Amino acid sequence: MAFWWPLIVLAFAYAICRFLLMLIPPNVPSIDVDASDVLAHGKETEENSFIYIPPRGRSQQSDKKVQCYEPATMKYLGYFPALSTSEVKERVALSRKAQKTWAQSSFKVRRQFLRILLKYIIEHQELICEVSSRDTGKTMVDASLGEIMTTCEKITWLLSEGERWLKPEHRSSGRAMLHKVSRVEFHPLGVIGAIVPWNYPFHNIFNPMLAAVFSGNGIVIKVSEHASWSGCFYFRIIQAALAAVGAPENLVDVITGFAETGEALVSSVDKMIFVGSTAVGKMIMRNAAETLTPVTLELGGKDAFIICEDADVSHVAQVAVRGTLQSSGQNCAGAERFYVHKDIYTAFITQVTKIVKSVSAGPPLTGRYDMGAICLQEHSENLQSLVNDALDKGAEIAVRGSFGHLGEDAVDQYFPPTVLINVNHTMKIMKEEAFGPIMPIMQFSTDEEVIKLANDSRYALGCAVFSGSQRRAKQIASQIQCGVAAINDFASNYMCQSLPFGGVKDSGFGRFAGIEGLRACCLVKSVVEDRFWPLIKTKIPKPIQYPVAENAFEFQEALVETLYGLNVWDRLRSLVDVLKFLTDQSSHVSRTRKSH
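Structure (tokenized):
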């Protein structure tokens, strides 16, 4: 005890010191970001105070302007330029020049950049969520969950572990290279390109930006034409934080436009990250193939939501409805196929019906609503088409929500939460990504059946399995083909930012987030060097030096068995042979030199 007592005291003192250091607030400067033109009650000019009526049946692309409006109210927000190919290449070139300086920055400076961002986000949560709500139609609560918490979690993880996973990582050198030191180094790639969707405009910009900048890269992000207004404001926050740490201008850029803008970006950068539809993802791959640009694709999802008969029905019903209705179906994890065990099917429908009837929906900034508007123009027609197809094939509507006091002219921006029963896999609603507030619910009888049903999809992003037996839930989840699985929860994976995120099949490939996503922004370089240089230097054995000796192959045979033989005695015997070969060869060389 006399020996351990001083160690215990030292450990306790160390813990106390660490705790006291935690109480000292870090010195993080504040940044000032002009938000007067984005607040709902801020300064507004006559030219952007009208109701915008987007043209139906045709794209904005012919206008060369990205028109922005509030989906919930159709209020006009302004426009941004659709950048041409030459303009995009110029922006990438500027970022590339800035990146060469930023690549030499210390992790201390990069962490300070993250802390400045984190401080601003925490102090301006309402502003960030309000901007997201105005541009996409989501509620403030949904914006907080999907925009603020996920981004703060990412920043916190990078502050805690980011440097650790970007430092050189030592690896074993193997038997043949025992005299060597082996390691993996992670260097910046250069300029990362990202094309991101509209569903979470704040986080979709910050997610790739944080990983790229922390790993020493520049990044150019093309925001969705459906969320350009918010994206360009969020860019101001990034610019202010970079300036506060003395980062070079143009390291990060946000660009606006349509297909031409995105295509130009793909052909100009060193790595491409795309989050969006499968169809566009395939186009990205074709364009990237021309320059052999590596890509990460996070595409569509049709996640299976499985509920076993021993699950807590009332709890799971709440989770299921939130997973479907969050941001009017704008969830990034895509809970779109519900499989409920036949023994609790009726009870689950009853609970879901009760919850859906209680859901309030409307313009999110005009009152307290559970659900907001649909961001995409004319998307409600696509959703209704999926519902009609299911009804034509035998499905029934168990319950359909309402919107209360909405005018006739607002019908296109809203879609009532809809629960479909008696569905099957012949229906489009069980095969195509809906991205809307529709819950198609199907029965199953056995675990084997539901696993087969869950895997019967071209999408394979994620799944959620609920059971009173955690072991059973894990067994089911382990047999489902997907990149993300949640046990007795839904979409919780994304809040664990140490984990990679991505899917397989038509849901894409590659990963962002986590260690894998951070290192995906790097040039991964393998390095080998002599362990005891210059005392021990690598030399080619005499028998295989040019011109090779007559017994060169026999020497190689003995060397291979010495290194990799399964029997220790055979390896020792082969080692003796190797030494003989080397000795004989040295004697031969010595005799040859004397004869000359």
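The mean pLDDT is 90. Residues 539-583 form one domain.
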